[in-house]
Amino acid sequence: MRGIPLFRIAGIRIEAHWTALVTAVLLTVMLGGAVIPQLAPDVDQVERWLIAPIGAIGFLATLLAHELAHSVTARRAGVHIDRITLWLLGGVSEMHNEPDDPRTDLRIALAGPATSIAIGVGLFAAIAAVSSGFSLGLIGAVVGWLAATNVVLAVFNLLPAMPLDGGRVLRDIIWIRTGDQLRAASIAARGGRYLGVGLIALGICEVVFLASAAGMWLVLLGLFLRSAAGADLAAATARHQLGSTTVAEVMTAHPFTVLAGTSVEDFLRSGLPTWHRVFPVIDASEHPIGVVSLLELARRPHLRRDARVESVAHALPPAAKVTADTPMTTLLSTVLLRPGLDLVAVVDDANRLIGVVTATDLVTASARSALGIPVSHMS
Questions:
Q1: Which of 9, 42, 63, 312 is the most exposed place for a label (fewest CB within 10 A)?
Q2: Fold of 247-378
């Protein structure tokens, strides 16, 4: 997930996806229209709408602190952090690799909720220290909401379901006790799926029986958790099956490529191979510059056939360019390959394309590994 670069903290790049703006607007409306009037009913309407955006920004700041705690703890353990991205449903710390030690991963997972609890308790203590029995007032209402929200955020994140922090905690504890990483990941992922379904059902009930649009937020969160838990399980299964396999053993060497400047019409009539639905776009120096997907083209029936392929391709994320000796465990920890939509470009020292890894390659490699067939014989 790529966002707009904002700044750096402790050397970690902070970005905001455009959906973070939606979150800020929704929080502002909730604060100004419901929370502040309930906690401080005597506050002037103009004042509460002036302070509501500050409260929303304050929440995003505490959310960033939660993710920074994960990231700083991970960096101290030798895990490289690419960036932190704020988006619609929270924040994401993008790790370049995952720790092999469950105890290290457990410390990283607990750092975020611990920080949120510390923020919540600290804000409650500050209110108690200065209130002296007086009415909370406008500032006190917003600070109290921030304190309570951070505690709720920590408790929710500690639910034993992937990809929440509590899911990672559950996975790490089972991993420590049994030594079986795949079994631990499977149990935690199932928890994520169950929680996702529960939130979807709860959100639908809220919309239908309470006529509350807030239920749609729960539905969206539930869909995300269910999808992310499935992706985590698939990645864990692939990591377990592929073990010490390198990209060179899994990739499709000498793949079919599309030269920049080619028209969509010429691309579609160029004798496309049947085993892939996504192809790399290269420049005249054979450097990969993008990805074109047959599925994405099919979803655009009015696309001009004389358009250049690179104009309808999507860019390769930095993590989606790797060398042949990259361990598959590293690749699986950093890149999510959607079937028929994404690929990883394998390049040589001169950044020339020498192969690709797609979701099809991963599925085939995992199946061969599970059957005891050498993975390296497939390409």
A1: 42
A2: CBS-domain (3.10.580)
- From residue 121, alpha-carbon distances to 115, 150, 279 in Å are 10, 9, 52
Computed on alpha carbons and rounded to an integer, the radius of gyration of the chain in Å comes to: 24
- pLDDT tens for the chain, 379 residues long, are 567 888 898 888 899 988 889 889 989 998 888 888 888 888 788 888 999 999 999 999 999 999 999 999 999 988 888 789 988 878 888 776 678 789 999 999 999 999 999 999 999 998 887 765 445 678 888 899 999 999 999 999 999 998 899 999 999 999 999 988 888 888 998 999 999 999 999 999 988 888 777 788 889 888 988 888 887 777 777 777 777 788 998 898 989 999 998 998 999 888 887 778 899 999 999 999 999 999 888 888 788 888 898 888 888 887 889 999 988 877 877 777 778 888 999 999 999 999 999 988 888 887 777 777 777 654 4
Single-letter amino acid code for the residue at 256: F
Distance separating alpha carbons of residues 145 and 149, to the nearest angstrom: 6
Tell me if residue 310 is catalytic.
no
Domain ranges of the chain: 4-242, 247-378
| Burial readout 316-338 (b: 16 or more C-beta within 10 A, e: otherwise) | bbebbbbebebbbbbbbbbbbbe
The answer to whether 229 and 189 are in contact (CB under 8 A) is yes
Residue 355: name the closest of 286, 284, 293 by CA. Answer: 286
Residue with tokens 């099809």: 360
